[in-house]
Amino acid sequence: MAEPSPPVRFGILGCASIARKVARAIRLAPNATIVAIGSRSMEKAVGFAKENGFPATAKVYGSYDAVLDDEEVDAVYVPLPTSLHVEWAVRAAQKKKHVLLEKPVALNVKELDSILAACESSGVQFMDGTMWMHHPRTAEMKEVLSDSQQFGQIKAVHNILSFAGGPEFLKNDIRVKPDLDSLGALGDLGWYCIRAILWAFDYELPKTVTAIADPEVNDSGVILSCGASLKWEEGGKLATFYCSFLTTLTMDLTVLGTEGNLHVHDYVVPMNENDATFHLNRISQIGQYGAGNPVSSDRVITTDLPQEAIMVKEFCELVDGIIRNGAKPENKWADISRKTQIVVDAVKASIDKGFQAIEVVY
Q: What's the confidence (pLDDT) of residue 291?
């Protein structure tokens, strides 16, 4: 029997709050381990490593470059502010480190193309940190949507992702700072909404994107809430989304087909770590005295690992194939990220151009 491959060795660039969740995911994934953490402050890096249960052997650095220069690091997780992604993801790729990059991956597709070109040139794996994509519920929902007899043709997708940031968040969080994350709610939350829409439509890009008028912005012009509609050229397909830092926590996704509809109320982060539910309903019309007897069901999908640990595990499987077996990087994830970024860019362009319809070009 062949011996199992050694775990993929991760370095983490930065001590962002989301890095706590992914550091735990790396510890939970059976094929990953943390070997280094880097921050601009040595004191902050030391504290982060202690607070998050890093192995005693993990190295702590007072710079990001030191992590990239560490020959024991196979891959890096990059949770830095979006404005720093292009610099540090490109540097990581040039150092032959595989890149797990927090979303939104870039401020625009031009920056993302620089990242992807660097990864391709160095032959390293790229994946973004959209965790819900890796939950087994997502795969099961896709099976339902792909069943033409059960669901029919998908006609519309609508989703909302929001949380009430509160005064401290709206004043000091990096996601409302124009020099750090200038896309604001569109980048942080709209990324998920757009990804869900593209996922439902098998990553077929819309023909046009039109932002809904009058998004809310802060004094620096950073988007706090916005929405958009997306239209496809054929089949009468459309989608809408709303994302906001100003309304109560909502993670609703609805997919409407000619034969059924699918609802999930926690599509980004399941309410329970080890099980997740979606609702499937089939009824063609409302009866005279009510909705009749719809064929509906709640489907519960269980998992031993949280979705972020599954994401890390799947990323490491790809990395291991490259390192141990000479496999080529899986380009699917780069393509999905690029399509998501293109639509984010189109929404922003529509806002900037007075809510005109923007034609989407790959």
A: 56
